[in-house]
Structures are given as C-alpha cells and as structure tokens.
Amino acid sequence: SGMDMFYSYDACNSTAEEWLGFYEGDTLGGIKLKASIPNYLEPMIFKRDGEGDVISEPGPEYYNNSIPYEGVYMNYVNEIMRIAKGDIQEVTYT
Question: How far apart are CA 62 and CA 70, in angstroms?
Fold first, then answer.
C-alpha cells in the first residue's frame, strides 16, 4: 500500500524498558498466531462480496472463512510479519 506503520511508545503511554529487558536476540522461531476479530469496522477491518464490493455490515460473507479480511488491521499485521523476516510464519483470523 506504500504506507509505513510505526508504534509510538509516547502515544501508547509505554517505554522500551520492558521489551529491551525481555529481548535478548532470540527469534520467535516461525510461530503461528490465531487472531480473533473483535468487530466489523470499515476501514479497520472488512470483507468483500462476490462482486468485490466492501460489504456494509456482517452477513454470510463475514462468517465465510474462505473470504479474507482486509483493512488497516491486516495491513499492520502484514507489515509486522514482513519486518519480522520469518519469526511470525502466519496469522489466522477467526
């Protein structure tokens, strides 16, 4: 999408101290994650119908696991996976 995403310790009221204390250079080893979808909220998360149009509210397509989720959340996770260079092997949305 040509958009870079970043985490802000300042905006999220956090520091790097806990992470740096935990991280010692080990990788995650290609883990597989399952992520639960909390809510249908376009453009954060959405699906498309058979014609490729964004569905306006959850319906049969929402519960069809063969139709992938799209949106800002998915773009964010995909970018994390790209940066992780194989540490996160896959994410399954449920």
Answer: 11
Cα–Cα distance, 74 to 80 (Å, whole number):
10
Please, which residues bridge with residue 35 across strands? 93
CA angle 10, 11, 14 (to 5 degrees): 50
Exposure b/e, 14-50, CB count within 10 A at least 16 = b: eeeeeeeeeeeeeeeeeeeeeeeeeebeeeebbbeee
Q: pLDDT by residue (tens digit) across 3-19?
A: 565 556 666 666 667 66
Q: What is the pLDDT of residues 56-75, one digit of tens each?
A: 887 888 888 899 999 999 99
